[in-house]
Each structure stands twice: as C-alpha cells, then as structure tokens.
Amino acid sequence: GLVITFTTWRLIFWINLPVGVFGTYWAYRALHPSARAAKNETFDVPAAVFFTLGLLFLLLAVTWGLLYSWTDPLVYVFFLAAPLALAAFVVWEVRVSEDPILDFSMFRNRVFTLSITTAAMQSLALFSVDFLLVFYLEGIAGLDILTASYLIIPMAAMVSIAGPFGGMLSDRIGARIVATLGLAVQAAVLVFFSFFLTTRTPLLDIGIAEAVYGVGGGLFWPANTSTIMSSAPPRRYGVASGVMNTFRNTGMVMSFALSLVAATSVIPPYVVYQLFIGNLSGALPPNLATAYLAGQSFAFEVSIVLLAVAAVVSLVRGKLPAHAPIPGEAPAASAANGGDKV
How far apart are the C-alpha atoms of 26 and 251, rounded to whole Å? Predict the structure, then answer.
C-alpha cells in the first residue's frame, strides 16, 4: 500500500532485488555444507530448466488468456507445452539424472506425500484471498489502496502471534490434528466471505474475519511444516524443504491466477488492471459491483472445496515413520520424530 501510494507499483518487483542480493550473500557466508552431505554431488541443470519452463509456460498461458483471449492460439500452445516440459522433468529425474533435484523416492512415504499435497492445496486455495479482498475494499467499499492494505494487517499479525502457539499445541496433541483444525478455521472464514460479504458489510467485520483467518494459518503452517520435515530422511532435509516451498509457491502463483480469472470473467480487464495498480477512483458502479461480488463468491467457493479436500488429506495422512539411523548418529535421534501424536 505504501509503495503504490507514494511511488509506483513497479517498485514492488524491484524492491525484492536488494533483499535477494543481501540474502544470497548472507547465506553464502553463514551457511556451511553439512558433514553428512554426499560428496561429488552436482547441480542438475537440465531438470531445473525443464521444471522452470513447465511453470513458465503454465503462467504464460494464464496471463495471455487474461490479457488477450482464452481462444488465442498461443494460449493453447502454452497450455500444451507446460505438461510436456513437466513430464520431461519427471522422466529426466527418474531415469537419467545421477543427482536429481527431486528425489521421487521420498514420495513413497505416505505422510510426506500427503503433507506436501495438503500444503499445495492450502496455498492454491488461500493465497488469492487477500488479493480479492483488496479488490473488494477498493472496488466495493471505495477505499484507497493504502487504507485497504491496513485491513490486511490483522491476518499477518495473527499468523505471527498464533504460529508459536500452533507449534506448541502440535507438540502436545499432534500435528495432524492441529493442521486440520487450522484448515477448518480458514474454511469457515471463507464461508463467511463467500456468503455474507456484500456491498454493506462493516469493515470491522472484515478485519475480525481476517484476524481469525490468520489464526487458522498460524495453526496450519507450523504443524504441517513440522510433519513434512520430520517425515523426510535426515540426509534429505534440504530437499524436503525445497519440495515443500516449490509446491507452496506454485500453489500461491496459481491461486493469484485463479483470483484474476474470477475477476476478469465478470468485470472488464481494464477495471481489474486499475484495481491491481491501485488507481481506481471511487467504488465500482452498482452493476459491476454486483457482478464482481458474484465472481468473488465463486472463487471463494472453489477455495472452500479445496480446503475441505485438504482437511481430509491432512486427517488421513497417518503417523510418522521412524527413520533408519545414520552412521555416527544415535538411533534415538533418528526415531525421535516418529511419535504417535502426529
């Protein structure tokens, strides 16, 4: 909100550059290879290229369809190229690569696979919520972009506050229960947004709902992340973290695409663009406001279904297995993560 209000929306992308440079330098200086790391491992460049191209083609297809037309031939080309590139990635990793980026044998672990699936579905369902709510606060409530961004703060604040409690609670009663409870809380908030968000909904109600939504995230992510890392073999913690963040970020990007599709399907693309960059002056006309609320409600209903499925997957993921001890490591240390509470 501050960046768009006082500078330009383009700075949102540039501002990450110095942060990334500093983070890379800091990681290079502070992080050191693990003593357990295998020797002579190489970075799998072809796999990285295939995977990047797969995601790139998928995003290009969605973006091109939003900007121009879903019947444009390039949209079909991109949608066809995306699964081909991702299939090439899988084939290369499984049959060719000596040092794969993604160790597919990890997916033989039921707990790991279902936990990753849950994380991806939660990201796909929920990361568009704030995006759509900002559109709502600008286009329906008539707020400027800075004021609208203030109403998103309760969610972020409650994630930070509830996160540590979510971690402690998962240690006591089990990560599976806590993560599923977090999904249920977020689904309940989306039910409110889908069926009770109108042109006259008080801003206080929206702020409270955002806070509750953040509590759900604070319960889900520590518990689910703990399960993912605990279910991975000790030598593959880095790979497990990378897989989790890859699936989460992919779900997040596609979630934003879902929100844009929902918005542009009911109101003109140029209006969505003005909402996106914070240049809309005043609320939408009544006919466009009604249409936008219908599209937003449909997007939230899709997210509710995704969360319901994610909650079921989370609940049936099972208990953590004990890992075989690593030479030089006490057996208890390897099995410590296999408690019955998960």
Answer: 28
CB 128 within 8 A of CB 314: no
**Which phi and psi (to 5°) does residue 144 adopt?**
-75, 165
Cα separation values, 269 from 13, 68, 128, 266, 281, Å = 21, 9, 17, 9, 16
Give exposure, 286-325, as e/b (b: 16+ Cβ within 10 Å): eebbebbbebbbebbebbbebbeebbebbbebebbeebee
Residues of the chain falling short of pLDDT 70? 1-10, 33-41, 272-283, 320-342
- How many whole angstroms separate alpha carbon 71 and alpha carbon 37? 49
Q: What is the pLDDT of residues 220-258, one digit of tens each?
A: 999 999 899 888 887 778 788 888 888 888 888 788 777
Q: What is the reported pLDDT for 66?
A: 74
| C-alpha neighbours within 13 Å on the C-beta side of residue 246 | 13
Distance, CA of 97 to CA of 212 (rounded, Å) = 45
CA–CA distances in Å: residue 29 to residues 23, 25, 241, 314: 10, 6, 20, 37
Structure tokens at 278: 């914070």
Token representation of residue 218:
């604070």
N-to-C CA span, the chain = 40
Q: What pLDDT shows up at residue 337?
A: 40
Angle between helices 45-67 and 237-264 (to 10 degrees): 10
Alpha-carbon distances, residue 262 vs 188, 249, 258, 292 (angstroms): 21, 20, 6, 8
* 52 vs 47: CA distance, rounded Å: 8
pTM, entire model: 0.79
Q: Are 48 and 86 in contact (CB under 8 A)?
A: no
Pick the CATH number of 106-321+337-342 from 3.30.70.1050, 1.20.1250.20, 3.40.50.150, 3.40.50.1980: 1.20.1250.20
The type of residue at 332 is: A
Q: pLDDT at position 107, please?
A: 87
